[in-house]
Design brief:
about 35% helix, globular
């Protein structure tokens, strides 16, 4: 039997039907497969909380996680300026992991630019769940820097 990893949020939802599992294929690479919940070997599965809570070394790269329309044009400038300002690391991750409040504020700024609510790619990339409810306090100085970057786009 192959080793399976199941996202717990998917598992809970699977009571009603299909579930998503990650399976190591015969080449040693992970594949995603959809299967009916009755066919999942839960006893031998590694249960994961959510894509967004994957350890940093398992999270997708910027290019893999963030859709092109959120990385190009004016937003490409914003990503680069956020790096130059010390808000983001070289790989576009939040400096020192950041805070949920900081990530929430950044995603709000990005979504306003594109007039959509694409929260999930940022959650997966930065490792936070439920970012839409991540309001809170973080450095006023950083908030001002971020606001200025997006105001100037």
């Amino acid at each position: 039997m192959s080793e399976e990893k199941i996202y717990i949020g998917t598992l809970i939802g699977s009571v009603f039907g299909n579930t998503t599992t990650i399976v190591n294929n015969h080449y040693g690479h992970e594949e995603t497969k959809n299967t009916h919940a009755d066919n999942v070997d839960i006893e031998n599965a590694e249960i994961l909380n959510d894509e967004a809570t994957l350890p940093p070394d398992r999270r997708p790269s910027w290019e893999e996680a963030i859709p092109e329309y959120l990385r190009t044009g004016k937003l490409e400038v914003a990503w680069k300026e956020l790096r130059q300002a010390g808000i983001l690391e070289e790989d576009y991750r939040l400096v020192n992991g950041g805070s949920k409040a900081e990530a929430h504020f950044l995603v709000t700024c990005f979504c306003r630019q594109k007039k959509n609510n694409s929260w999930k790619p940022f959650e997966v990339f930065w490792g936070f769940t439920d970012l839409i409810h991540g309001e809170g306090a973080f450095s006023k100085e950083q908030e001002d820097i971020i606001s200025e970057i997006f105001r100037n786009l």
